[in-house]
Amino acid sequence: MPSAATTEAVPATELAVAALALARRFAAGATLWCVAPQWPDHARHVAVEFVHPVVVGTRALPAVAVDRPEALAALRASVRAGDALIAIAPAADPVVSDLARRAPAWGVETFWVGGGPRPGAGAADHVLWSAEDDPLLAHSSRFVVAYHVLWEMTHVCFEHPGLLTSPAPACREDGCITCSDEGRLAEVLTVDDHDVALVRTADGEEGVDVSLVTPVASGDLVLVHAGTALTRVASEGADS
Amino acid sequence: MSPEATDFLYPFIEGDEQDTRSLLADLEASARVKSEESLRLAEVTLEEYGDLLDTVAEALAARSRRGGVLFTFGNGGSATDAQRIAGLFAGPPVGLAVAARCLVEDPAVLTALSNDVGFDLVFSRQLIAHGSSGDTALGLSTSGDSANLLQAFEEARRRGLLTIAVVGGGGGRCATSPDVDHCLVVRSGSVHRIQEVQAEVVLDLWTRVQRCLGVSP
To answer: Where are the domains of chain A?
Structure first.
């Protein structure tokens, strides 16, 4: 079991980067969505931390715990581009894996707190991981320390207003995302009879040609470039 | 960290600051300091309360064996910790399950009581409904002063429950309440460090209860 004597430090480097990213999101008007399917109390603890700060003089910030079983449907309906999502869950959690995979199509930055085997590379924007692999880890202080420190440091970042605006992506000589070959992740909303789908991306909704990836259905993830869905993105379980 | 102490690190403390490196380095160092603080405080607290935790564990285990229920409660972040504790005792990932319930679980009950009789009575009224002499009441508070905890302990004592307070700071009113059988104080002024160490204290208590029940998780 985890004991104070054998504990490793928090992932300090990743937490610092995550705090600045989260502060930037809040500064731009984000809501922080909190999920922890196995331990919903952790999600509620994170939310109350931000909404009702314990340190006098710190801002109340919008954070919402989503602890219903149908978290995917609730979040899909509620999140807006620019929001943030924090999950406290093991790497194998299917709900969180799926949410983290869809988040780029929603324009949502993801923060994943957990322990034991790590999620695969790129599973979330910020992976705040404890190396310990212990069934009681969620009941120790480990995750609580991680999200407390994240909260504390997010507020430190607010003391540095000059650093709270993310550098805007600009067209460089080698091309920006829009004019390069890069595909954007999109979630299919509806498909009509002529292989045209309405999809959701970080930039909003748009119609795209899905004839190259047909058949597609509502909820499928595809990569879009120049108005065309080029490839389907593997769903949970299919890519392991 | 105090902003005054570190302002000198940032030549562009106002709106024109652009280089994130010094901030990130400082945040990283600060994260390590806070984490170390938390670990040290847990060590000190567990050392202080080792013997008491054995006593509490034996009493709790004895009540559990006879069918007693562990009721947990708290406010805010402590409410979420109370939920997790009830979950650990009632549905541990390893070891034996014992009957445990959290008194903040049901919004219908919480809002009915808060609306009709007041928030101070939100836990004590539930103990009137559910609690009996073989049970245990475990309340969490970072200050030790929450009125609804003190009311709950008073009702619990009246009904013969074992009463355990897991608190912080100087222990607050829980530390001197005649209705509290065992008071575990995490001696810190930081609400965050207190909650973190409370988690370690209760996990340690749970492990000792499991041992009393003949299990070594």
So the answer is: 4-163, 184-233
pTM, two decimals, is 0.91
Consecutive H or E run containing B140: strand B136-140
Nearest CA in chain A to B78: A45
Half-sphere exposure of A104 (CA within 13 A, CB side): 16
* CATH level 3 topology of A184-233: SH3 type barrels. (2.30.30)
Tell me which CATH code domain A4-163 carries: 3.40.50.10490
pLDDT tens string B123-147:
999 999 999 999 999 999 999 999 9
Do A141 and B23 make contact, defined as CB atoms within 8 angstroms? no
ipTM, two decimals: 0.91
Architecture of B40-212 per CATH?
A: 3-Layer(aba) Sandwich (3.40)
The answer to whether residues A14 and A131 touch, using CB atoms and an 8 Å cutoff, is no
In chain A, residues with a C-beta closer than 8 Å to the C-beta of B43 are: 4-5
Question: Which residue of chain A is at minimal alpha-carbon distance from B76?
Answer: A48
Residue A43 near residue A34, CB atoms below 8 Å: yes
CB distance from A136 to chain B under 8 Å?
yes
